[in-house]
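Appendix B: complex inputs.
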Amino acid sequence: MARMTCKCGAKLNNQSAPNDIELVVYTDKEWDVICSKDVLHPWTIPSPKYEVWRCPECKRIYVYEPPGNTPVMVYSLEEE
Ligand SMILES: [Zn+2]
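Resulting structure:
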């Protein structure tokens, strides 16, 4: 995943690193396995199972399961 167009029309890409588009989200179980290691270095932390993108315009959340390029979950902000 390098770029996509949100349903609201905003064009998203994660080419600048760090960026505000991609969220790093681990499940508690994934994180527990990582933290159970004796020595923890940032470069040894595995990528999370899911790739999560957030549109800065409409705040929609897109969840990908690499290497898939089709979101497995999409969330939009609930209207109050
Ligand atoms: Zn959007």
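Residues 6, 8, 10, 55, 57-58, 60 surround zinc ion (CB under 6 Å).
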